Amino acid sequence: MKEWFQRRKFMLVFSTLLLAWSAAHSTVNAANQKAPQKLARQPFRILFIGDSITSYGVSPQSIKTLGWNHASGMAATSASKDYVHLLTAFIQKALPHRKVTMQIGAGPDYGRFDKKGGRNVHIYLAPMKLFVKRHPLSRYNLIVLQHGEHEQFRRGLPEMRRICGAWMKLFSGEHRAMMICVGPWAPWFATHGKKYTGWTLRVQHTIRRLCLQWGGVFVSVEDIAVDPRNHGWGKAPGVRWHPNDRGHLLYAIQIFKAFKKIAAAHGLKLHPVVLPKVKP
């Protein structure tokens, strides 16, 4: 009889522990199931850093000297048709259950011409560090870096590596945001062999190498730039040099394809997106 009571006591204790473990396990599973749901409800934030292809404002001077009368990526006919807004719209379709927001962090001075006659993004590294301090990179899910068109050959490759490396380092690191780097836009090759050569090719190779080194994905727009159909809109030569509506659309499509690959690598599930057909 004594042994029977001992066995019964053991079974009661074991059953109590089993029930407690099951309850705790269920709580953990429920928390794990809520985590992806909570993540899915959070906004997907994109930060764009670039030059006039990313954003160009309107001013009395731009109207007078360039005939440029609206704010958008130059030379899109409206903001809704530049690559920034098109890419944001594509990603919103791919993430229908999350609000996709975008911010252009270049600021009005990014890429301004320096005294040497070219643009030197290193000059604006300090202002961009201030931007990052005010807007922590941990809040962004995707960073798109677009630059390289105005790096001058007289500075040489070591200087360009230093400049570009400083930017890559700034926008990579512990925040673990996805990063996409876009190669230089050089439409003058549309009439000179239709392939990048010389300094432009070196710029492209340098940006690609540094981007991969700092954990980003590189996107070339060479095939788009050398096609005459993708630029030429605007009243001034400086405007016509930039991608037109067709060029901006192809620009956005190219980046979106890269985004799909990097999103898959990060375990981000995307809804299928039918991309617009490009007119001949």
Q: Strand sequence of the main sheet, in spatial order? A: 2-1-3-4-5
Radius of gyration: 26 Å
SSE run = HEHHEHEHEHEHHH
What number is the mean pLDDT? 81
Question: Could you estimate the helical fraction of the residues in percent?
Answer: 40-55%
List the total number of helices. Answer: 9
Q: Give the number of DSSP strands.
A: 5
Q: How would you sum up the major sheet? A: 5 strands, parallel
Oligomeric state of the chains in view: single chain
Strand content: 5-15%
Estimated structural class? alpha/beta
Shape: globular
Measured between the Cα atoms of the first and last residue, the distance is: 93 Å
* Sequence stretches where pLDDT stays below 50 over 5 or more residues: 7-35, 107-119
Defining traits:
single chain, about 280 residues, alpha/beta, 5-stranded parallel sheet, 9 helices
Descriptive notes:
The protein is an alpha/beta fold. It is built from nine helices and five strands. A five-stranded parallel sheet has the order 2-1-3-4-5, sandwiched between helices. Helix 6 links the parallel strand 4 and strand 5 (217-219). Helix 3 packs parallel to helix 9 and helix 5 (156-170) runs parallel beside helix 6 (198-213). The radius of gyration is 26 Å and the shape is globular. The N and C termini lie far apart (93 Å). Residues 7-35 and 107-119 have low confidence and may be disordered.
